[in-house]
Amino acid sequence: MSSSASSPGQPPRRLMWLHSRPVLLFAFAFAIMADPVSSVAYAIEAALRALNGDLSLLLPTMCLVLGLIALVILNYHQLVARYPQGGGAAAAAGDAFGEAWAFVPMGALIVDFVLTIAISCAAAAAALIAYLPALAPWRVPLSLALIVAVAGLTWFGHLGRAVFATMTVGFIAAALLVLVYGALAQPHPTGTINPTPPHPPPVAIALAFPVAMALATGVEAPSSAIAQLGQLVGAGRRRFGRITLWLTLGIVGTITLGLTIEASRLRIGEPPANTTQLAELARAAAPAPLFAAFQLMTALLLLAAACSSFQAGPGLLKALARQTLSEGQTTGILPAPLGRTNVHHTPFWGLLLFIAISAVVTVAANGREQRLVAFYAVAVFLSFLAGLTAMAVFFRRDRRPVQLAVSLVGALGVAFTLAVNLARGYPIASLAAALLVAAVFYQLWVRAGRPRGIAGAVTKPD
Questions:
Q1: So what's the pLDDT on residue 18?
Q2: Which distant-in-sequence residues (6+ apart) come within 8 Å of 189 by Cβ?
Q3: pTM
Q4: What's the rounded Cα separation, in Å, for the pair 85 and 60?
Q5: What is the per-residue pLDDT across 350-403, written as a single tens digit (0 to 9) for each?
Q6: C-alpha to C-alpha distance for 33 and 222, rounded to whole angstroms
Q7: b/e per residue, 112-138, with b = 16+ CB within 10 A?
Q8: From CA 277, how far away is CA 265, in angstroms rounded?
Q9: What is the C-alpha to C-alpha distance for residues 282 and 288, in angstroms, rounded to an integer?
Q10: Any stretches that span the bilayer, and where are they (predicted)?
């Protein structure tokens, strides 16, 4: 018998390694972290703009950002342990405060998915324009074309996790090469650099870091995405979720601090029109071929993050859509058409809805990703706040004072981030949209007779 023989229904032995746990962990972890890793493309620049171009305060600001992200991850480490079946903040809020409260993080997730699509496609367009300035007059049409193109890929079926993982690894490799070349480069002052902060340094940092907390988007994804690991039992899902959380912090933290230090040393300030700080950093640090590759990998990673939201958003709507089971029982709260799929199992009405809304948001922002950053941080931090306060309730019930203190400190940090961003005025639209979605879901839930288990929609395969 050939050595490649295997049992019926199993892949050939020579391909068994593709189904091993290390390969599955690689594909899962690096696909899930595409969102937070891609946020590096605009979060550092957002912090510098909030600092009014003061490069001397950029590093402490980003260190504070990463510190708060570490605190959130520490809490989600416990949340994954409590919900190895998935569900994230929605499941935790439903258990801690009553099932109706699960709609708050769900509403925040819906808004977060829309903003991820809009800001990722706008940032991808910015990366392309930074390399090909002739595209600048077509910024908005280019952003919209990228939205449609990414949605089109999703229409024809889900891209495998391995594709997202490959794009993430490609960007990480390109970023590390830029850092290596940049360590040998001479300072190359570019853009606007302001040696005078807009406020005393502690105040300037405290007001600037909440904007850069867009870097935290996607941190909550492992707590929900582990539900898709049907081949693993609870302990395996818990392990995958926790490893992904800390691996994300390590990689995002390393790249963020490296690029921040390099931008400060090379004197890369607020970029001029039609380019980005990250692009100017790569242009100053790396040879032309690497600069081109870096811009391409940046755009591809951003589009992978958008594609992930095009899968997750309509998938959540599908899980909440009304359907009639074989025994005649009706489940779900949203209109039934949102649950209909095409031959590629894509919920097409939900996909079209996300295309339309993200396109409107992109046009409203004139295709500028920096105009969307503060909105972005508000949406995801509403979900964080729900998850962390729920965990605080659990730890109080379980009489675990150390974990309770960690959750309360994390919740306070998240609440401060929300408050500062909302104080800017316009980001309140993001909060209002999330609460409006939550209110609509709640009313439909009440009208449907308050069916049990609605918080589990986040755990259903999309």
A1: 46
A2: 267, 268, 269
A3: 0.91
A4: 37
A5: 999 999 999 999 999 999 999 998 888 888 889 999 999 999 999 999 999 999
A6: 9
A7: bbbbbbbbbbbbbbbbbbbbeeebeee
A8: 13
A9: 9
A10: 59-76, 109-132, 138-156, 163-184, 204-222, 243-261, 290-312, 348-367, 373-395, 402-420, 426-445
Q: Which residue is listed with tokens 């950053």?
A: 373
Helix or strand (DSSP H, E) at 357: helix 348-364
Question: How do residues 55-86 score in pLDDT, each as one tens digit?
Answer: 999 999 999 999 999 999 999 999 998 888 88
The rounded distance, in Å, linking the Cα atoms of 340 and 199 is 53
pLDDT for residue 325 is more than 70: no
Distance in angstroms (rounded) separating the CA atoms of residues 161 and 249: 20
Among 49-53, 130-134, 290-294, 322-326, the range scoring the smallest mean pLDDT is: 322-326
Q: What pLDDT, on a 0 to 100 scale, did the predictor assign at position 162?
A: 66
Facing residues of 442 across strands? Answer: none
When mean pLDDT is compared across 94-103, 213-222, 399-408, the lowest value belongs to 213-222
Average predicted confidence (pLDDT) for the chain:
87
| Residue with the larger pLDDT of the pair 458 and 441 | 441
DSSP secondary structure code for residue 358 in this structure: H
Instruction: Find the helix or strand (DSSP H, E) in which 28 lies.
Output: helix 21-32
Would you identify the CATH topology of the domain 22-456? Amino acid/polyamine transporter I (1.20.1740)
Domain spans, the chain: 22-456
Question: What is the per-residue pLDDT for 338?
Answer: 87
Token readout for 1 is: 């018998």
- Residue 1 burial class via C-beta count within 10 angstroms: exposed 0-12, middle 13-18, buried 19 and up: exposed
**Contact in structure between 301 and 170 (CB atoms under 8 Å):** yes
Q: What percent of the chain has pLDDT over 90?
A: 58
**Cα–Cα distance, 70 to 409 (Å, whole number):** 12
- In single-letter form, the type of residue at position 114 comes to V
Nearest to 265 by CA among 62, 64, 127, 59: 59
Quick check: helix, strand or coil at residue 139? helix
- Phi-psi group of 268: left, alpha or beta (phi > 0 → left; psi -120 to 50 → alpha; rest → beta): beta
Helices vs. strands in the chain: H and E counts, helices first? 17, 2
- pLDDT of 17: 43
CA 382 to CA 64: how far, in whole Å? Answer: 19
Q: In 10 A of CB 426, how many CB atoms?
A: 11
Q: What single string gives the DSSP state of each residue in 147-194? A: HHHHHHHHHT-PPPHHHHHHHHHHHHHHHHHHHHHHHHSPP--BSB--
Structure tokens at 19: 């189904």
